[in-house]
Amino acid sequence: MRSGFLAALVAIVAVVLYMGAFIVNPTQQALVLTFGRIDTVIQEPGLNFKWPIVQNVVYLDKRVLDLNVPTVEPNLADKKRIVVDAFARYKISDPVLFFQRVQTINAGNQRLSTFLNSAIRNELGKVSFDKIVRDDRDGVMQIIRDNVSVKAEELGIEVVDVKIRRADLPDANSQAIFARMQTERQQEATQIRAQGEEQARRIRSRADRDATVLVAEAKRDSEITRGEGDALRNRIFAEAYNADPDFFAFYRSMQAYETGLQQGETSLVLSPDSSFFRYFNDPAGTARLGAGEADAAVTAPVETGSSAAPAAQ
């Protein structure tokens, strides 16, 4: 009789221990409730016990949680409308307060999302588009995080960070801005091309003027050089003629023969008695020349490219 009672008692104790034992994981914290009232807070992992039926356990996450906020379209201080996509990271710092105010994580996410949306709209309404996109984005996010943290502490939540993932203009505004930017760039390109054409014309004009001056100077110098060369040639010829007039007359006649008797399109009809052929019959070249005629024959110009032939008698 007594042994049966002890066995029953052991069985009851075992059932109580089995039903009352619970494990808290390292990623969790637990609240032990006695008839709905918070009795114990357990934040360390391990095996714990509660009274069956009388007490129950509520588990809350101990890790840093993510909150993705729905996209909002606030109006900025410069009257522009942007599309903002933000998120927050938080953790439950006070499980008792959190359970008393919101009880579940889903309810906490909804409350925190409301706070974050309100803070984003209020703060972005005070700044310009350039500040949020380029100049001081970190500063704006820090102000939003501070504002959300104040309200989140009332829920037992510690806000770790708030980030704006994307801040862009709406599609219609983006297309309008793109069109305006494209027009501005086209105008700028047209202006640059016009300036380039003006500079090109100025450079070409300067180059043409310099070329004209250079050509004129070159022609002037060439004429001067040619004149000096002709003068030197005439002086040399005059000196040679004065040194030996007979040989000079013979030499000039030989040159005239060589030039005048070449094959060409021009025909020169002369009499065999002409002074042009004086050296053919008389080596001295004076047989057919009168006084002063030899000088005239020597100095007479000879046309290049003509052919000379004696006339038939």
UniProtKB/TrEMBL annotation:
Write down the Gene3D superfamilies for this protein, in alphabetical order. Answer: Band 7 domain
According to the record, the signal peptide region is: none
Task: Give the residue spans that cross the bilayer.
Answer: none
Question: Its GO biological process terms?
Answer: proteolysis
Q: What is the superkingdom listed in this entry's lineage?
A: Bacteria
Q: What does this protein do?
A: HflC and HflK could regulate a protease.
- Family per record: Belongs to the band 7/mec-2 family. HflC subfamily.
Protein name, as recorded = Protein HflC
Q: Which organism is it from?
A: Roseibium limicola
